[in-house]
Structure formats: structure tokens, C-alpha cells
Write a structure and sequence with these properties.
The protein has 2 helices and 9 strands. By secondary structure, it is α+β, with helices and mostly antiparallel strands. It has 2 domains: 60 residues, 2,3-Dihydroxybiphenyl 1,2-Dioxygenase, domain 1, CATH 3.10.180; 55 residues, 2,3-Dihydroxybiphenyl 1,2-Dioxygenase, domain 1 (Roll).
Length: 131
């Protein structure tokens, strides 16, 4: 049996802003919004050119992260997107910086030889942009 990760999900207070961000900068395509009015749950599934999927979810009452966006904490740490080249990492990182998104690190070569930058999406989730 082959196991594949089917999708990863992110809770957010503004799934519209996240949907727009991932479509604009990472080439995602969104399905129609799912709404469960009984529990006030809303979600989108985003599909990336590679076939990977990300579910964006919002619902009243979901707790905030335990710390600020710059602080690391236990649990899922980041999503990494491969661009295919150092130049593409540089270009996308500069575009995000110019558009006002917070760049946490890089672009740089890490100690384990990854070339990457680390940014925050509109909800404060860490994203690595790699070769």
C-alpha cells in the first residue's frame, strides 16, 4: 500500500485573504467555498500545480496560536514550496517583500545546504521557499 498525504489544513480568521495569497504567489487553484451554516464552518480546498492540496478553514471560537508568529512552538512548523532554482527563490522572496509580507530569514544557504527563505503568510503561518 502506498500512503500519500492527501492534504494539510490551516485554521484562519480570514480564509479569503489566505486563498487570494496562495493563488497569487504560489499558483493555487481554489474550489468553491464549502459552508456549514449550522456550526458556522467555512472552508476552501486549494490545489497546487504539483497536485498537493491545502484546506483553509474558519469557524468562530477556534483558539489563537499560543505565541506570536515569530515564536516557534510544538506542532506543525511550516509548509515548504520548491521553486526549482535559487533565482526563483530570490525573485519570489523579493516580490513578497515588495508587497509588504514579512520575511523572517533569507534567502540564504542553511547549514544543511538548503537554499531558502522563510516568510509569513497573511495569517502568520511560516512558509519556506526553497529550490
Amino acid at each position: 500500500m502506498t500512503m500519500l498525504i492527501e492534504h494539510v489544513a490551516i485554521w484562519s480568521k480570514n480564509i479569503e485573504a489566505l486563498r487570494s495569497f496562495y493563488e497569487r504567489y504560489f499558483g493555487a487553484t481554489s474550489n468553491a467555498k464549502y459552508v456549514n451554516s449550522g456550526v458556522r464552518f467555512e472552508s476552501y480546498f486549494l490545489t497546487f500545480p504539483s497536485g498537493a492540496r491545502l484546506e483553509l478553514m474558519q469557524m468562530p471560537g477556534v483558539a489563537e496560536k499560543p505565541h506570536g508568529a515569530e515564536t516557534q512552538f510544538l506542532g506543525y512548523a511550516h509548509i515548504a514550496f520548491s521553486t526549482g532554482s535559487k533565482e526563483a527563490v530570490d525573485t519570489l522572496t523579493a516580490r513578497l517583500c515588495n508587497d509588504g509580507f514579512e520575511i523572517l530569514e533569507g534567502p540564504r544557504t542553511t547549514g544543511d545546504e538548503y537554499y531558502e527563505s522563510c516568510i509569513l503568510d497573511p495569517a502568520g503561518n511560516r512558509i519556506e521557499i526553497t529550490v
